[in-house]
Known about the structure:
Elements: E1 18-24, E2 37-42, E3 56-62, E4 70-75, E5 90-96, E6 106-114, E7 128-134, E8 142-147, E9 162-167, E10 178-186, H1 202-226, H2 228-244, H3 256-287
Parallel strand pairs: 3-6, 7-10
Antiparallel strand pairs: 1-2, 3-4, 5-6, 7-8, 9-10
Helix pairs in contact: 1-2, 1-3
Amino acid sequence: xxxxxxxxxxxxxxxEGYIFKGWSPTVTKVKGDAVYKAVWVKLNDNRTTxxxxxxxxxxxxxxxxxxxxxxxxxxxxxxxxxxxxxxEGYIFNGWSPTVTKVKGDAVYKAVWVKxxxxxxxxxxxxxxxxxxxxxxxxxxxxxxxxxxxxIPFPxxxxxxxxxxxxxDKAIKPVSGDTTxxxxxxxxxxxxxxxxxxxxxxxxxxxxxxxxxxxxxxEHTQRVELGGEKASESLAQNQTISADSQPxxxxxxxxxxxxxxxxxxxxxxxxxxxxxxxxxLSSGRKKEE
Length: 288
């Protein structure tokens, strides 16, 4: 008993009246159970070698459900000639295994392909497998039954609030049942989106309004101290100023520059009123 892959070491053999010529078949490395037979050449009466006798082997051609199968007894090293075979409703597609030179007993079986109703050859049966594309919480996942060796075509999938990043493993030719899982990444809002600024701050509008009211009250008090004429003059100036101003249809906000301009104008008006009041007082004293 020898291990697979090892090389057998043939024993020394002898036979009266014969010369040893070798082994049949040729000794090779161990692949399975094997039998090697010694090959002898008979010696003539004059002690010369006779033509060696060749071994013969049984070669069977099995029609495998058809007609025409045969069995031959052939010498080692010869090439078998397969018989013609036929089978109703089938086309002959060769022998299995492939026919080779005789090395020992062998059996060859005919291979057939069934003919369809339209007399064309049927397509050989190919294994099919279940290929699943799992949307992993999204929409659009599908399952297909595909033939071995074909390339799956992934469906289009989607998931609200997420970005599709691909499948959890590379798509490969079909070799068995397989599941591909969709990979998603959470979609976040952009923090740099522009904010809505339709109007100025309400606080700014209110401060501007309060400033205007304060200046108006102060001016009225000072004018009353200066006399009736000053009040009339100031009222006329305010009336003219108000008429020349464009009418606002709604609340309007003032910037820092506008507030400063209003304050400066109010100060100048106040100074003018004071000068006018003093001049008026001086004139009355001179009359007295």
